[in-house]
Each structure stands twice: as structure tokens, then as C-alpha cells.
Design a protein that fits this description.
Radius of gyration: 26 Å
Distance between the termini: 35 Å
Strand content: 5-15%
Largest sheet: 6 strands, mixed
CATH architecture of the largest domain: 3-Layer(aba) Sandwich
Structural class: alpha/beta
Number of strands: 6
CATH class of the largest domain: Alpha Beta
């Protein structure tokens, strides 16, 4: 079996050869049903579940029967707060609920490995050999992405110490930033390209199910790990 490789670039976008990928992470057969289940659980976990409506018993008033049961020629009614009345309660409306689904860790691991393998098979995994920029500017990030041919949605897996890179990519709406321990299946499948640094590539699968750090993750889609 040929070794899995990803193109290696410097911070200016110049090619520096290839870097070998871990076959256990980037070279397995993608399990589509597991990826679907994990992504569904992740998106469900991101739902706030705070929608709420009032039933007829929670509406104020309506305790008196509006008119006599018989003899008026009008339909029978017992309360002006029943659902068919304007201002009445809502029948079968939403109530606060927890949408989260339990997902075993082994399933999450398999789904993430499947997503990374799918991207690797499409040559959508790229590696940057560090950042030698003097300052963090969006112009640097745009130039790099253009030079390496990454268009559309990009997932950048950076180390927390890459402050200039974080500052440079932070204002690009099509770029999502994350750390090695925060990579999720949804993020990988959402992106057209997954870009690592040589430092984060080896940790692409470490602590992948930690709670997301909102101060770092630039969540353009609103999804958090379930």
C-alpha cells in the first residue's frame, strides 16, 4: 500500500514537498452511517431547546363560560382561552426540551477518522510548515490560501501559540479556526480543505472530544460537539 501523503507549504505558499499522513487516521474506509449519526447528534446538541408556547391552562383569563351552552344559536364554548380563539392557548406547541443525543466515544473516533480519511482521499488535506510572518494581517492569510489553491470553506487546525496566524485568519468568513483537540466530524465535512501545521498534524486526533473553547473556536456555522 502506497504511503499517504499531503502537500507541504511554507507560510508564503511555496511548495516544500510532501508530508506523510498516519494511515490509521487518514487512511481508513469512511463509515458513512456512523458519520451521519455523529453529525446529527452534534447538530442536535447545538440546538438551544428554549422554544416555548403557552397552553390554554397557562393563558390569563378565560375562566368564565363566554355564553350559555344552548339557545344562542352560536357554537358551544367553555373558555375564550381554548386554542381556536384568538389569544387562546397553543395546542401541541413547543416546550423547552433537551435535544442532545448520547454518542459513544468509539463512534465519535470512528466518525472523525472517517471524515479525515475522506478528505485525504480527495487531496483536501494540506500542511503548512509554520508561519514566518512579521505581523498578523488578513492580507497574509488571503495570500497563503490563494497560493496553495484553497478556495471556499477552510478548516484551519492551529496551535494556540500561533497567535499571528489566528489573528490573520480570524476575519475571513469562510475560514473556521480550531485546535487539534477540538476537531469535530462536522467541521471536517463542512470544509472543502483541512489545513494543518506540522505541529498540529501529529496531534490531529488527540483529545478530540474535549469541550470547545469559545474564546478560540471561530464557529461560523454555530455547531458545537455534542
Amino acid at each position: 500500500m502506497a504511503a499517504l501523503k499531503a502537500p507541504l507549504f511554507d507560510s508564503s505558499g511555496a511548495a516544500k514537498g510532501d508530508v506523510e499522513l498516519d494511515a490509521e487516521v487518514f487512511g481508513i474506509e469512511p463509515n458513512i452511517p456512523v458519520m451521519h449519526q455523529v453529525v446529527t447528534a452534534q447538530l442536535a446538541g447545538a440546538r438551544r431547546g428554549t422554544a416555548s408556547t403557552k397552553t390554554r391552562g397557562e393563558r390569563h383569563g378565560g375562566g368564565r363560560k363566554p355564553w350559555a351552552q344552548k339557545g344562542t344559536g352560536r357554537a358551544r364554548h367553555g373558555s375564550i382561552r381554548s386554542p381556536q380563539w384568538r389569544g387562546g392557548g397553543i395546542a401541541h406547541g413547543p416546550k423547552p426540551r433537551d435535544f442532545s443525543q448520547r454518542t459513544p466515544k468509539k463512534m465519535k473516533k470512528l466518525a472523525l477518522r472517517s471524515a479525515l480519511s475522506a478528505r485525504a482521499s480527495e487531496s483536501a488535506v494540506k500542511v503548512i510548515d509554520g508561519f514566518s510572518w512579521d505581523e498578523g494581517k488578513t492580507k497574509n492569510a488571503k495570500t497563503l490560501l490563494s497560493a496553495i489553491g484553497s478556495e471556499g470553506k477552510v478548516l484551519m487546525v492551529l496551535d494556540r501559540s500561533d497567535e499571528l496566524a489566528i489573528r490573520s485568519f480570524g476575519n475571513l468568513p469562510q475560514v473556521k479556526l480550531t485546535t487539534p483537540g477540538q476537531v469535530t466530524t462536522y467541521d471536517v465535512l463542512w470544509s472543502n480543505d483541512v489545513i494543518f501545521t506540522t505541529d498540529t498534524l501529529g496531534r490531529a486526533f488527540s483529545a478530540s472530544y474535549a469541550v470547545a473553547d469559545d474564546d478560540f473556536v471561530k464557529d461560523t456555522e454555530g455547531g458545537e460537539d455534542a
